[in-house]
Fold each of these.
Amino acid sequence: MRRPLAHRLLLGIRIALPRLPGGADAMALWPFMLVKKGPPLPAWIAHHERIHFLQQLECAYVGFFIVYGIEYLYLRLWRRLSHYRAYRTVRFEQEAYQNQRTPHYLATRKPFAWARRKV
Ligand SMILES: [Zn+2]
């Protein structure tokens, strides 16, 4: 059975690399899901990256990286948070971390859910 286009777009094309920036296990650059070579990726990590896929599509892709970068720099330079705290506070990450273990989240998620969060 053929999957709907929206579903196929969110599955992503996995590319295994020996290492990723910052020691990450996976990274979403729609339509590519960059993953660290090794054991199979846990389902919740793939789900986390799929939430980022949707965010990237909502922000016309480049907007995601602009908002992400501005928020991260604001949190690091203005609010003086550590790298890890700033990373976890970026609103895209708040949404992804909060819902990464909820399997049906993508089916029930409201558009631009990340925008309702506060940094
Ligand atoms: Zn993330």
Note: The first strand starts at residue 13 and ends at 17.
Amino acid sequence: MEGKLLTGKKGIIFGALNDKSIAWQVALKAWQQGAELVLTNSPVAVRMGTISDLAAITGSKVIPADATKMDEIDRLISECMNHLGGKFDFILHSIGMSPNVRKEIPYEQTIYENMLRTFDISALSFHRILQTAYKYDAINEWGSVVALSYVAAQRTLTGYNDMGDAKALLESIARSFGYIYGRDRKVRINTISQSPTPTTAGSSIHGFDSLVDFSERMSPLGNATAEECADYCVVLFSDLTRKVTMQNLYHDGGFSSMGMSLKAIEQYKKSFEECD
Ligand SMILES: NC(=O)c1ccc[n+]([C@@H]2O[C@H](COP(=O)([O-])OP(=O)(O)OC[C@H]3O[C@@H](n4cnc5c(N)ncnc54)[C@H](O)[C@@H]3O)[C@@H](O)[C@H]2O)c1
């Protein structure tokens, strides 16, 4: 394992449902770079998904936990510390779900119980995990926590619904806890704002295929894949990024800085030719 970026490091990966999941790719790459892992997902996702295959490949333990339940997060963090022999070095939060998106309820007719559930699963779960890990002093100095976000936190993208609000909250929690963890524990906390990626959660967004196509045409480097996102996560878990914290880091082929690209305008003009 000598010479690998994560040799000797241990971490928890939340959110690997199947091999399309971004978390799945992160777990694979982290393991390939020498890390020891605990994998976790909600009990229903552990039953319905294929996380046990990933555990077999990476030699990891699976501990189910619903990230909206404080007692389950508490048990998870203490079981992880027991299993990993004490403190660990990194956490990936790769959790998102909106009942409003799933049921195709438009933003302007939101159901507030659903909206609260969106925030609880997709953003407050991050706070719960960080608060519990802080309580147990579970993360080693110069450890690293990464959560996955999307540019809908800053810009309105039709169809993304209340997940845009959830991502804005997620990014804010990363900054608020990033200050506390940096000050008290020398631990860094960042979010990665990833391109649209064909996964179970991604594909539930209304008009997702068009969103993928649009951002592919708009981004000078094209959309970033789940595997490429995993590479970025590994670098953020490694000792090469020890002073990067409280940042929302775009990993989107340049999309977030674009206004209009040649490829997108050519496609836009074609649609007018069809109308004329
Ligand atoms: N796919 C995209 O286009 C895209 C783009 C940017 C950011 N993201 C973010 O990446 C992250 C991972 O999503 P993905 O695209 O890999 O899809 P995915 O469906 O593979 O992963 C979402 C995960 O959230 C888990 N989850 C849902 N409710 C949970 C709960 N109560 N407790 C614990 N886990 C729970 C699911 O079981 C699943 O494993 C999400 O935060 C998502 O918003 C995705």
Note: The CA atoms of residues 173 and 182 lie 13 Å apart.
